[in-house]
Amino acid sequence: MDDTEYQSRTTGYIKNPDNNAELTSKIEEFKKISTYVSGGYDDAPSFQNLTKHLESIEAKYKGGDVNRIFYLALPPSVFVSVGKQIRDNCYSSKGVNRIIIEKPFGKDLESCRELLSSLKKSWTEDETFRIDHYLGKEMVKNILVLRFANVAMGSGWDRNSISNVQITFKEPFGTEGRGGYFDEFGMIRDVLQNHLLQVLSILTMERPVSFASEDIRDEKVKVLRCIPPIERKDTLLGQYVAANGKPGYLDDDTVPKGSVCPTFAATTLWINNERWEGVPFILKAGKALNEAKVEIRVQFKDVTQGIFKDISRNELVIRIQPSEAVYLKMNAKTPGLNFRAIPTEMDLTYKRRFTDTKIPEAYEALILDALKGDHSNFVRDDELDVAWKIFTPILHWIDGKNGTPPKPAPYPYGSRGPKELGAFIESFGYKRSAEEYSWPTTSMSNL
């Protein structure tokens, strides 16, 4: 690419529907300071050429410090070679150096450890930022405040009050020609082992000593160490098939013929500590489903039987995307003369409650953190190691390393997932709300 093509690619997706003059000016300003240098991943002269280019830019700096951040949005297979070449040829001797690495961080526990140890030969843990963009999402960061800044929330946050927890990730599209990449990693590696497990760790960790990055990450590691490896009986796998005019997973030319790679996975994790013993945490993720949604659903236990029977359970729902919201599903008396309890909610929907505010994209927040040197929302090496311990046995089973791989259950493109899903989550104690309930509004004419 030349600079013109590069700048067209980097700015082509910036949204400016009203042709705002200030934003247009900022985009042009960005183009002027954005340049492209071509080179090989494992080619020392290419990185030496990059250094010359960096030095030509830095020669215009007024101060003496030269700080460099290297962002590796690259295939994991070249992390080590590129990291070494940068360290050997592009490392600044006059300031701070940091390296940002995109997931996936390996494919299992062994490959993760190999990757970690190889990178550590070139980069210290303090210089390394392993990015998982879910840690930059507004509602994920808000969990810490919801839990630890509210006595009303914290008092019932344990196995005595909570029946089960679901963390759900839904995409309404399939692999769309990216089947070759996806088939190598699958839904568990792509979403559950990183994004959803990160959400789980923040949802269940103990109160940190402070908001300092290491204090937060210490607590995340502690709770993850209490989770035993996932068992096969606690796992449901699915693969979408053609429906509603859409092709099935195996119809994608980039997918290997006869692949048994799951495009849907539901796994149940258990936390063996005093707070969470016996509470099932169900992580669910799938492609080609009926909607785009990421949410946490904490379902509380039934009220004591007596004056109320068969009423809906309380649920705390944290909608991560789209339409960020937190709502507590609770029972209230129907308006009017009847004395009947119906489910309703206390609702904090961000776009209604907070006016004139812009929620930054996750990557915006995380790259700013990397510039500041704040590791709070990045994945530490020991955290990564224990995360792979939880998932590696089930991944080896799916990969066929322990005999014949399981065949995922088929589900139609655009559905809620495999037909077995309802029975699966109900087997872990989940109870559905009354049929007449719907969020965010319920029509009283239907009651």
Secondary structure layout:
Elements: H1 3-11, H2 21-32, H3 44-58, E1 68-72, H4 79-89, E2 97-102, H5 109-120, E3 128-131, H6 138-148, H7 151-154, E4 162-170, H8 179-204, H9 213-224, E5 235-241, E6 264-270, E7 280-286, E8 293-300, E9 315-321, E10 325-333, E11 341-349, H10 350-353, H11 362-372, H12 381-398, E12 409-412, H13 421-426
Parallel strand pairs: 1-2, 2-3, 4-7, 5-12
Antiparallel strand pairs: 4-8, 5-6, 6-7, 8-9, 9-10, 10-11
Protein name: Glucose-6-phosphate 1-dehydrogenase
Question: Which sheet architecture does the biggest sheet show?
Answer: 9 strands, mixed
Helix content: 25-40%
Separation, N- and C-terminal Cα atoms = 63 Å
Number of DSSP helical runs: 13
Count of individual beta strands: 12
Shape: globular
Q: Give me the secondary-structure category.
A: alpha/beta
Residue windows where pLDDT falls under 50 for at least 5 positions = none
